[in-house]
Amino acid sequence: MTTTDASSPIAVIDRVAVLLDAFREAERLTLSELSRRTGFPRSSTHRMLLQLVRIGWIRRHGHAYELGMKMLELGSLAQHHDRVHQAALPVMHELHNATGLVVHLAVLDGPDVLYLEKIGGRFTLSVPSRVGGRQPAHRTAIGKALLASSRIDAESVMPHPVVGPTPNSIGDAARLRVELARIREQSIAHDRDETTVGVSCVAAAIGDGKNTVGAVSVCGPTKSMNSSALVAPVRMAALATWRHMTSSRTLRPIPA
Length: 256
Description:
By secondary structure, this protein is an alpha+beta fold. It has eight helices and nine strands. The protein has a six-stranded antiparallel β-sheet with strand order 6-5-4-9-8-7. The relative contact order is 0.12. This is IclR helix-turn-helix domain protein.
């Protein structure tokens, strides 16, 4: 029978998880208390703490340790994403039932969109997206809706020209700047064969013009999709999701 090397990535992650889990029952713990609660040698516990303090996951207070701001921020962000998902899910099902198209929920994460949910029918396999997956924001309707609402400068998204996967993909900051200005004016974003030939999407940001918590989109086959007719339903879905969230509690916009 083989055992996992204590220095292997999986073993290290397991040990860090055990160490962090010790803070469930106490806000602050000393090195001795952490060593006793985890069962790890004092020297090993100290080495892990030094690394976790360095990256901001743990914060030191005198002889005691507590969860750092980075851990608190990640926890808050995860909770916020869950709230967006809960508010959007029934609206997404309604939008899918009304249109028969693939419906996405996503948030902006740096220059990418991060997909939180995907609901679809027969066409879903043709749309290159998955829950937890990413796409460059500048070449998706949902990403462009988020970029436009976040007021991010086009040059910071595309500092250099790029070759996209299709002839319709945006390849430089100048073209992206014009596209984002149009989206801000119309409050709707379009993607026609920009990520995949034969797939088009319509998207709208979820927010009030000042705060944006995500975006929703519908995608379908370019040859049969009436994008103009989808503008109103997509806008209404984004608005309904925002109202669901604001009717329950105070919101914090998702940082770009």
